[in-house]
Amino acid sequence: MKQAAPPLEAAQVERAFPFYLWLDDSLRVKAFGPSLATALPGLRCGDPLDQHFSVRRPTPAADFADWQAHGRSACTLFAIEQAGLRLRGAVEWPEAGGLLLLIAPVLTSLDELRTLNLALTDFAPQDNIGELLLLGRSTQMALQDTRRMADQLRVRSQQLHSVIELCADGVAFCDADGYIQHANAALHELLGLPASPSLVGMPIDALEHQLRRIADTQTTTPRPFFDRHAEDHVAPVQLVLYRPAYTVLLASARRSADGGRAFYLHDATQATEVDRMKSEFLTTAAHELRTPMVSVFGFTELLLRRSLPDERRRDVLETIHRQSSLLVGMLNELLDVTRLEARRGLDFDCRPCTLQDLLVPAVEPHLVQDTHSFELRIAHPDTPLQLDACKTQRALAHVLSNAVQFSSPGSPIEISSLHGELRGRPALGVRVADRGIGMTPEQQARMFERFYRADPSGHRPGAGLGMSLVKEIVELQGGRVEVESRLGEGTAVTLWLPRREAEVATC
């Protein structure tokens, strides 16, 4: 027995199909659902279908016969006066005649729903449009969040990349298999490797082997430099390279969550050199201070324990005075170095002066000693300068003292003045030339290093701070120090001093 379909009243049809559209044989509107009336307020019974809708399916749909040929297949309509409203559904052929389109809007977001002035209550209870729209909205929000997080991650990655590239120390990352994934420019520079080709893609063990070939085996830590298996808390590994330049590197590592390793290479060359210089200074200073202190202590004890003739007593006192003067001189140099480092020229009292004001106090003490002949060729004694006269005199005194100390008694020392420029501005040069022992190129390259002495034997007094002080004093006042020297022929030191601005303007 054939099952009978339940009869439906008009209100029931509207609840079940709130967007239905009933057309007559001439394709004019006979009736339509209440929700379709909400979406299309201009829709009226008797209006032709093509006045309000563009039929995309069936194609063609010019007359009733075309629809009959289409049968009960799905149909698609686009609203003409409501852009964005697309309706899809099925075609039915009611017994009362005409054709019945059981259609519903195709929506992708809740925003489209609000644009059509519709609510979820305008849909049939059996429709899952609400769940679909909410799911679509959630998917859209998740997509937006994903894109936002991707943008943030990209910006963060760019920031980290910029920081790593600007870092003065070397940074390298390798994956769990030991292949380098990133190496910044500082790493290439520290290791003396060309920027191209990049280290990316090279096994970290191959880089380790390459560095070991140019390492100083006596001072390099025997542990692997790039140790992929070491714990994070292990002390940094030291590697000393002697090519292309002497470099002391300290490498530390951290393990990442994916099993890779991040290596951080710190250039400790300067700190190591400072430690070396400090050690040399302590050794030199201890020796230099000990020698006069022993003399002072010994001769003082001699005066206390013995009764000496007046002539012998005077010799002893002169020795004590001479050795005490050496001590005072070395201590003053140490204090000068400390003061210059701390103040960086802030305590300089720069006032108008002339070259003669600087030379006379610096040269007179040596003229009294009468151990060398001084040849003064000063062509510009009254040239105005703007300097701290006291400190500049001290710098000249150091240069003159070196010329006397490193040349034979009686040999000439020439002091002359020169005209020149400093950074495009007029300057005055004071040149002190001797015919002493001179220096090798290696000694000349290190002569401004603090605590460096060309003669470490101790036969000549001093702590190796004089020329360093000269350079600091002159450069902090905008000047420059030039040195010319040949071993066995002598040395010429020129102090270039900026001339006073007012005087320059009138020249």
Overview of the structural elements:
With 507 residues, the protein is of the alpha+beta class. The protein folds into four domains: 10-127, Beta-Lactamase; 167-267, Beta-Lactamase, CATH 3.30.450.20; 276-343, Signal transduction histidine kinase, dimerisation/phosphotransfer (DHp) domain (Helix Hairpins, Orthogonal Bundle); 351-506, Heat Shock Protein 90 (2-Layer Sandwich). It has 15 helices and 18 strands. It has helices spanning 10-16, 34-39, 49-52, 64-70, 110-115, 129-166, 185-190, 204-212, 269-305, 310-343, 355-369, 389-405, 441-445, 466-476, 501-506; strands at residues 21-23, 29-32, 53-57, 74-79, 86-92, 99-105, 170-174, 180-183, 237-241, 247-255, 261-267, 351-354, 373-377, 384-387, 412-422, 425-434, 480-486, 490-498. The strands form four sheets. A six-stranded antiparallel β-sheet has the order 2-1-6-5-4-3. Strands 8-7-11-10-9 form a five-stranded antiparallel β-sheet, with helices on both faces. It has a five-stranded mixed β-sheet with strand order 13-15-16-18-17. A hairpin with a 5-residue loop joins strand 10 and strand 11 (261-267). Helix 10 crosses helix 14 (466-476). The radius of gyration is 48 Å and the shape is elongated.
